[in-house]
Each structure stands twice: as C-alpha cells, then as structure tokens.
Design goal:
Layout (H helix, E strand, L loop, with lengths): L3 H11 L10 H25 L17 E14 L17 H11 L1 E9 L8 E6 L12 E6 L9 E6 L2 H46 L4 H21 L3 H27 L8 H9 L5 H34 L5 H30 L1 H9 L4 H6 L1 H33 L57 H4 L8 H7 L9
Antiparallel strand pairs: 1-2, 1-4, 2-3, 4-5
Helix pairs in contact: 2-5, 2-6, 4-5, 5-6, 5-8, 6-8, 6-12, 8-9, 8-12, 9-12
C-alpha cells in the first residue's frame, strides 16, 4: 500500500523536470506590480515611436541602393579576353606585382561571354551580355539565377548588369530544415520558439529599422524594440509564469547595464560608427542619423539573444533547486545557483568572443597580412568597435548570472508558506500514514515490526532538524515507543526470554 508520504515524494519528483510549481497569489501580485508598468511603458514607446514605414528617398545607384530585377543565364560562350576588351588595366609586363599579374591574365586568358535574360520587371525577356574574366571569384553556368541591377539613366546597352547570384532556393531549403528540426525536437515548445523568432524579426523590420531611418534616437528605439522582443519572445516560449517574469527582470537589468557601459565607452573611445562603405552610404543618405547611437543600438540588440538564454537557464536552475529541497533558504539557493552559473559564464563569454571574431575574420586577416602590431590593430576604429562591442556585451552577460540568480532565489524563497494556490509548503504527513514495512525482522522471526529500542534517532528527541537531507517537511517526528513495542522488544534492547 502506498502511503501519502510516498505519494508526495513521487509527486515532487515528477515535477522536478516539468513546469514550475505556481507561486502564491501574493507573490504574483508583487511581480505584476513590477512588470505591468514596464510593459505599459514599452507599449507607449512603441506607439509614440512607431514609424509607419520606411521613408522614401531617391535612389543613388550605389551599393545596395539600386533598383534590381531577377535574371537567368541562358547561354555561355568561351571567347578570348582580347576580343572582348576584358582587361580593365593595361598590362605593364611586370608580373611581380598583383596589378601586373591580374592585367596579364585578363588579356591572355579565356573569358566567359554569358547571355543573361531578364525574368522580372517591365522589360521581362530582355537579354544582355555579361563578360566574366577567368580569375573572377564568381563564375556562371547555364540556367543559373542571377540578380540584375537596372540603371535607367545609363545608355541602353549599359542599363543592365549582374550584381549577384540568386540564392533564394538554398536559403529557403536550409530555413525549412532548421524549422523542421526545431519542431521535431522541441514539439510545441519548438513551434512557439519559431513563432517568437518571426515576431522578433517583425519588430526589427517594421519598427526598429524604419524608426531609426526616420530620425528617432537609435538608443531609445533599440531599448524599446529590444524590450518588446524580450517580453514577446520569453513569454511566448516559456509561458506567463513567475519563473519567466524573473528572467525578464534579470534580462532588463542586464540590458540597462550594457546600455550604460556602451554609451560611456563608445563616447570615451570616440567611436563614430562610420567605418565602411555601408555605414558611409547610410550616413550620406540620412545624415541626421546618429551613427554612434546606431553602433550602441547594435550592441544592445546583439546581446539580447544570449542574455535570454542565460537568464532563463539561471532562473530555471534556482526553481528546480527549490522544488528539490523546499527547506533551502535564499542564501543556500543563491550559492547553489551561482555554482551552476559559473560554468555557464565560461562557455557563453567564449561563444560571444568567438562569434565576433569570426565575423571580423577577413578584417583581422588583412591586418595580419600588413604585419601590424597588436596595439596598432586594436587601436584602429574597425577593430576597436568589435572590441568594445564584445567586452560590453560580455560584461552584461557576466553580470546577468548573479543578478538573475539573486532575484530568483529571493522570489522563490519569499513565497508565503501555506498561501492559497501555493504548493511550495506541502502538508505534514500524519504519523499513522508512515509505512509499516521495516527492513528489520521482529522478535520471534516475524517480519514487519521495528527492532527493539530507539531504532530512529528522532524516536525520543522529536522532529528532524534542517540538516536532515529530506528536510523538516518530508520527515515528520516519530512518537516514543508504544507499550506493545516495549513488551515485544524489552524497551531497552533486551530480548524476550523464551
């Protein structure tokens, strides 16, 4: 027969890896009093800063700011590069320099003469010729999709040119494989994660980017947009629970720290944010945009995804520790949770640094070719931006571990014991419900009775202390031996005479 105590223990174990136990009504009110004003402020910020669309401008025809159409390679013919005047630089005969070798190959090699057909737009079906040099990094093949740039002001023969290849199908296929893997492994939670990902991209493309282009402060836009993404993504993926609310608070505090540190050091290091052709084009088209603020906005948004992972993991760890041992106080929960967090810090910081280093790898390779010193490389604005971005984000990640762990320990320990709707204080098991099966044989060889004498250390001393591994709630006190037990066992360990 299963006792109530055994039932309680198995019930507690069944929830140790499942959803968090709900907290009391009082604690839910406290959390709501903190988060509702914050969520209201985010909604008001979205309403005030909502751009209503990307502002229109006259196309410059430079870089990405060009009108494009779709095209397809219909024919390729091999020709002598001299016949099509493919050489852009006259050959000097000096093959010791890169310019001389490139011009020599362009003049003496075989070029590809590709016929491109426009497959979209007003002039669908129009064809033009594209010459590809033998040393070009991108070579064409028949039936290959390409992206065609259209310049209406150029001469008729020069209005169309190939700018890139069409990669939509392999990208869509890879995205489909990713979504399938997430759904198969994550099931309903994976579906909600995909929905949250779509919502995050919607906030980024419909609010953050157009609002910055319209002249709003990039830092304010990034804070409001990142907060909206955080609220939507966390609650959609992890549910509207106290555990998720604590993770939201920990993420918010860490984001504020990242914003303050980023603003301080970006200004102190005189980082302009205008370091390459793309940022130069943005500044040229929209000179009212604060490029250093745009850099800070990128730091905040880039750190948000990793912060969500850290705060949710730490909050879940503290919640599970409390469910495993409800007798643990806030200090014990914090110490246990921070030990888990230290391992998380080491892996996350290394991941963030390597991610930024991988993105800047071509730049670092150029500095290596130039044989520049470490100090010279780090002092250049291109590299200094990545260093500040990495270090500020890493400081926020490191700080999120103790902050979130402390919040979770305080919240889960502050729950009122016995409050309505709170299962955190399980009822004490009655003495009569204790299991009657004992591993010790009874006197006379009958199994099922306890041995003579105080077989349990609490038989005469009362309840188990906090040091007991089961905790004070799981091990109720045992009464002193009954008269029948003393009669069978002698009361003080004496065996009954036959």
């Amino acid at each position: 027969m299963t006792s109530p105590q055994q039932t309680h223990e198995s019930h507690g174990h069944s929830h140790s890896h499942g959803p968090a136990a709900p907290v009391s009504q009082h604690l839910r009110k406290v959390i709501a009093a903190v988060l509702i004003p914050f969520a209201t402020a985010v909604v008001v910020g979205l309403a005030v800063l909502w751009p209503g669309g990307t502002p229109a401008h006259e196309r410059t025809g430079v870089g990405f700011d060009r009108q494009t159409e779709q095209g397809q390679v219909v024919q390729i013919e091999r020709v002598d590069c001299k016949d099509v005047n493919a050489a852009q630089i006259p050959s000097t005969g000096d093959l010791s320099k890169p310019q001389g070798r490139e011009a020599e190959r362009a003049q003496n090699g075989d070029c590809a003469k590709a016929t491109i057909e426009v497959t979209s737009g007003k002039e669908k079906g129009h064809t033009f010729i594209e010459v590809v040099q033998p040393d070009a990094p991108r070579q064409f093949h028949v039936k290959q999709g390409v992206v065609v740039a259209y310049a209406p002001d150029a001469p008729r023969d020069l209005q169309y040119s190939v700018t890139d290849v069409n990669r939509k199908f392999p990208m869509a296929l890879l995205a489909g494989i990713f979504a399938l893997a997430v759904v198969v492994v994550g099931r309903l939670r994976g579906v909600m994660a995909l929905v949250a990902l779509a919502v995050s991209f919607a906030v980024l493309t419909l609010f953050i980017l157009p609002a910055i282009l319209q002249g709003s402060n990039p830092l304010v836009v990034a804070v409001v947009g990142a907060s909206a993404i955080m609220l939507l993504a966390l609650y959609m993926c992890h549910g509207l629970t106290a555990r998720t609310s604590v993770a939201v608070l920990g993420t918010l505090i860490s984001l504020l720290l990242i914003g303050l540190l980023g603003s301080l050091f970006i200004g102190w290091a005189s980082l302009t944010g205008n370091t390459d052709d793309n940022t130069g084009l943005i500044h040229g088209l929209y000179p009212e945009i604060d490029m250093s603020g745009l850099l800070l906005a990128g730091v905040i948004i880039g750190s948000l995804g990793v912060l969500d992972d850290v705060t949710v993991t730490q909050t879940s760890a503290v919640w599970e520790l409390h469910q495993a041992d409800p007798s643990m106080g806030p200090r014990a929960l914090y110490r246990a949770g921070i030990r888990i967090g230290r391992d998380h810090i080491a892996s996350v910081v290394n991941t963030l640094v390597l991610a930024y280093a991988g993105a800047a790898l071509p730049l670092l390779l150029l500095f290596s070719i130039a044989q520049s010193g470490v100090g010279t490389v780090a002092n250049s604005e291109l590299v200094a931006e990545e260093i500040v971005r990495t270090l500020v984000g890493s400081i926020g990640l490191v700080a999120s571990v103790p902050v979130t762990t402390a919040l979770a320990a305080l919240v889960v320990s502050a729950d009122r014991a016995g409050a309505k709707g709170s299962p955190l204080a399980p009822p004490r098991a009655p003495v009569e419900a204790l299991p009657s099966v004992s591993p010790y044989p009874a006197a006379g060889g009958t199994a099922g009775a306890r041995p003579a004498g105080p077989a349990h250390p609490t038989a005469l001393t009362g309840p188990v202390g906090a040091s007991d591994p089961e905790g004070p709630e799981a091990a109720p006190s045992l009464p002193v031996q009954s008269a029948s037990a003393r009669k069978l066992g002698g009361g003080k360990g004496r065996r009954r005479k036959k």
